Amino acid sequence: MTNHPAQSNGMQSLRKEHLYKVLVIGDLGVGKTSIIRRYVHQTYSTNYRATIGVDFALKVLNWDSETVRLQLWDIAGQERFGNMTRVYYREAMGAFIVFDVTRPTTFEAVIKWKEDLDSKLMLANGQSIATVLLANKCDQGRELTNNGIKMDQFCKDHGFVGWFETSAKHKRAAVLLAS
Fold first, then answer.
1. How many alpha carbons lie under 13 Å from residue 116 in its C-beta half-sphere?
2. What is the similarity comment for this entry (predicted)?
3. Neighbouring residues of 137: CB distance < 8 A, sequence distance ≥ 6
């Protein structure tokens, strides 16, 4: 956290800045990049291009006298099988694990992603970082998430702080992440 002067109504005030690294992980093609683009740039594209390695986006949020910079790390879906995730995960304060509600195998894979994350990254106090499960492409189907009680129990059983349905195509990601 840093402090620097900011002008407010002609008076000098101290503005606090916070930088948080947040991971966005999950299998190939689940919509991680689309969620990030919708949230950061308010855009959506039907053109799919796989992320190679890692990509970054920055979202700046201003609240009263504080600035929060969310550094979103978009990790390629195939990276869980490589050696680089430990490097990519380093110093993250939170994570979203994304699955595609129309592809059950991507839901099954979230447990492996969570295990990979928890085995390679912990907070200074030894706790796992806060991880939220995102059920993406909910505009295309809800078979996997039509039972909220089961989804809540799944999150509790596997160490997620919660879950949300998202759709980058229909702006549900931007609303979710902004709240």
1. 25
2. Belongs to the small GTPase superfamily. Rab family.
3. 30, 31, 100, 101, 102, 166, 167, 169
CA–centroid distance for 154 within its chain:
18
Confidence (pTM): 0.83
CA atoms within 13 A on the CB side of 6: 13
Q: What is the pLDDT of residues 51-75, one digit of tens each?
A: 777 889 999 999 888 999 999 999 9
CATH number of 20-178: 3.40.50.300
CB 151: neighbour CB atoms within 10 A? 20
116-149 pLDDT tens trace: 999 999 999 999 999 999 999 888 876 666 678 9
Q: What is the dihedral of CA 77, 80, 83, 86, to 10 degrees?
A: 100
Annotated domain spans of the chain: 20-178
- Alpha-carbon gap, residue 9 to 96, rounded angstroms: 38
The two structure tokens encoding residue 109? 């894979």
Q: 83 by DSSP, 3-state: which? A: coil
Residue 15 phi, psi (nearest 5): -105, 125
| Terminal Cα-to-Cα distance of the chain (whole angstroms) | 22
